[in-house]
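USER: Fancy drafting a protein?

ASSISTANT:
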Amino acid sequence: MAPLNRRQLVQGSAAAAAAAGLTSAAPVIRSRPFGRSDEIRVAVVGVRGRGNNHIDGMQHQAGVDVAALVDVDAQVLAGRREELLKKKVERGDAWKGGPVDTYADMRAVLDRSDIDAISIATPNHLHALQTIWSCQAGKDVYVEKPVCHNIFEGGVMVRAARSSGRIVQTGTQSRSSQGMAQAIAWAQAGNLGKPLIARGTCFKPRQSIGKVDGPQKVGEHVNWDLYCGPAPLEPLERRQLHYDWHWQFATGNGDLGNQGIHQVDMCRWAIGAQELAPAVGAIGGRFGYDDDGDTPNSIAILLAYEPVPILFEVRGLPRDKATQAAGWNGGGMDRFRGSAIGATLECEGGWLHLPNYSSAIAYDLEGKEIRQWSGATDHFENFIEAVRARDVEHLHADIREGHLSSSLCHMGNISYLRGKTMDKAQVAAQVGEHAEGKLAFTRLAEHLERNEVDLGKHKLTLGPWLEFDPKAERFTTDDEANALLTRDYRAPFTVSEEV
């Protein structure tokens, strides 16, 4: 979809501003009257949750000013603008004291010659289109994980960045940890012996999002058309507009593509994989409640890299039924190698544990600690450094890294979506004696049973084993799986093969 021309944007933004009571929403085209000649002016898109961190992260950088905010929710937008203006005054940076313009439609900022970079923290289904538009408009981009809502989009984003010469950073901030980088290099040098498997966990309780009995009213302060974007323009079918979009496939990717993408990225980094996996399988479901979510809250995926595969597990229920009664987070959570959320590279002589975004610990086979690493730099700072240098190689998490790790999560979800529901005995028979598959199934079944989920009544979904061509980025034997590499786009919010 081509960006609107300036006249359309001014008219549309002015109308939106009048409706929302935001006098600053109409675009103002400037040629840098404020501040220094070397400043970088940023627009943050999607400012309610993670986007608020983007505002602070960018505004704290030397020589950077957040000059515009974009959100389809006018109430959120007005609040963030006032907060930012107040912070600018409190910090006393005179050259950063310029106005903060606000918009409902991000295309309004793409026509501004004084905006250098776009920082994106919108729902997943909007990431690709907004990044591509930004590259085409000559803007550098920081885009949150997962960078894409599907595998096709990720490939287009990479091509858009390369063809436009833009700097595009992925929001997997562990890539800016020098401690983790040093630890992975140490393990890859053979200090723990031959790598055997990478394991990742996302054991993070998520309560029900509720179940509505019909379409929900969207407030007039929300531009619903822009919110839906490439997704179908259908009524809201969940109780809460914000955040719970993660748990519906039309807009999100479940916790596999939300929290899990961080740890999947760590696993891929640890094994040194620079393309997508040659095969994938999945098992899981949505258990413990009946709600409006359709993404699995419990899933295990096996990414069949050779010679070192990745086994990743997501658990959205608490440790057991008693923990639920204690308030879900009141009694702790399942752990693997000491972490509920983490990644581990297991080797012949021990294992390397990555328990957070900025550290690593190596153990021998008896569990004795061998060595520790820690430390990280600011991921936003790394982006700004690369923008100033005009060099993609400066980035710690270039868009291609984001595409690969995001798409591994999508591969797992595709196997799940192509799966069939089965009872526990049927799944066990299908898994057979496959060592890692059997382990993943057994661990998942035991976790669900501790939460009193009857696997006779509430059946698991066993995804097919899908072979994949990493070069073509297509499945080799399943046309229906290939159909899930992309989506049906709603015009005019279309992601095109051509960039």
Summary: Residues 1-35 have pLDDT under 50 and may be disordered. The radius of gyration is 23 Å. Residues 178-375+399-475 form a domain with the Dihydrodipicolinate Reductase; domain 2 fold (CATH 3.30.360.10).
